[in-house]
Amino acid sequence: MGWWPFKRRVKPMIDNPHMKGARTWISDLREMCERHFDNPTEGQRRLQQMQIEWKDAWKNSEIGDGLHEGLERRAYRLLRANAEEWLEWLDDEEFWQPGWRGDDGVPNGPTGMD
């Protein structure tokens, strides 16, 4: 009774199915920022905490260099924004798209978290 004429396909094992992808990281960042749309200072404080999370994920090779750079570019602009600029960044749909490179793709200075 153990005979079966068709071979079962083995699904490839995923090392960690709970790893976050680019859209998830960016979405989490955006949601956190939007929760603090009326308090940029608190949003920036929370952003710094998130920055530690994604740096740890990058060091553990859970996220790639491109995603890490994209998150850092966004953090750079959000951390240096005043209240008016904070709202402008939150409303900029292009800013929240995966692959966003910014003005020239390179921040003008360090993020202060290196």
Amino- and carboxy-terminal Cα gap: 63 Å
Q: Write the H/E string, N to C.
A: HHHH
Please compute the radius of gyration using only Cα atoms: 19 Å
* Relative helix content: 40-55%
Please mark out the parts with pLDDT under 50 across 5 or more consecutive residues, or reply none: 105-114
Q: Structural class of the helices, strands and pairings?
A: mainly alpha
Work out the helix count. Answer: 4
The biggest sheet, with number of strands, parallel, antiparallel or mixed sense and barrel status, is:
none
Number of strands: 0
Summarize the structure in short.
With 114 residues, the protein is mainly α. It has helices at 22-35, 40-59, 65-79, 83-91.
Structural overview:
The protein has 114 residues and is mainly alpha-helical. The chain has a domain at 22-96. It has helices spanning 22-35, 40-59, 65-79, 83-91. Helix 1 (22-35) packs antiparallel against helix 2 (40-59). Mean pLDDT is 82; it is low at 105-114.
